[in-house]
Specification:
Strand order of the largest sheet: 4-3-5
Radius of gyration: 26 Å
Shape: elongated
Helix content: 40-55%
Number of domains: 2
Largest sheet: 3 strands, antiparallel
Distance between the termini: 72 Å
Number of helices: 8
Amino acid sequence: MELKLNLRNNSYDYLINSIDTYEKAINYGDHHLTTYYEKLKLKTSFILLLQSYELMLKAILYDKHKNLIYTNIDLQRLDNAHTVSFINAINRINNFTEYTIEEKDKTVLIKCSKLRNDFIHYQVNIHFEQLRQELLNLFVLYNKIHCYFYGHYIKISHWKDIKLEKQINNKFKNILNDTNFTIFRGRDFLKENLQEFKKELESNQNYHHYISVNNKKYKRIKMGSENDFFRELDKVEYISDIYEREYCHDCLAKNGKYHMFEYHCDLEVCPVCGGQILTCGCIKSKAE
């Protein structure tokens, strides 16, 4: 089988690999359950996406005039000429097409280019959340220029697979929606909802007891103290390292704080029976 690829198709191939790698790196928004190895894939996704964007710039220039992708267009023969650098490609888009890459977008792109070079050639220390934000910014800019020249839909004709093509477009759309989210304690939150959640998380700490169905008062079990409680009840089979993490992976309560009763936390332990408070039926209400 002969593979017929051009600059635009090459850009799409890098984009698709970037999307697939991104999904593995973020674990569908449950970042605190993502392993270090999976988080490292975010770096790979970033490098792939920047390569995809650079090829998209050259595809646009080539469509305008095929010689615009070369460094020195005045040579007698361009067969072995070098293609333009990332920065020069940006400048040529502004100089030779009707599209303008705004200065603020250009600043983001130059920053991303430097970060890519640092990833490949130097030692880099960067927080997962910061890298994700840089990557999301780059996805937005890719979508912006692609929509202008080729429309919002990514038509991957060389794949000859309409179903798979639609899946990629849906994945790309979902990633663009991720710009509305922020990470809090390892989980994605809509930016507009995070402050309200933090308030509820804090107010939940005012309730130190539960009232049982028999109207007796019991001290609540804090995140991180469950295993000691199980030992006291001689239920060692319930002991798990899931209670020794920094945050509850269900309600996000910090170690040493109370679980979120209002969010029906799966991991909160009943102080009466030692079972799952969500299902045991021992508790009637909270109390201060």
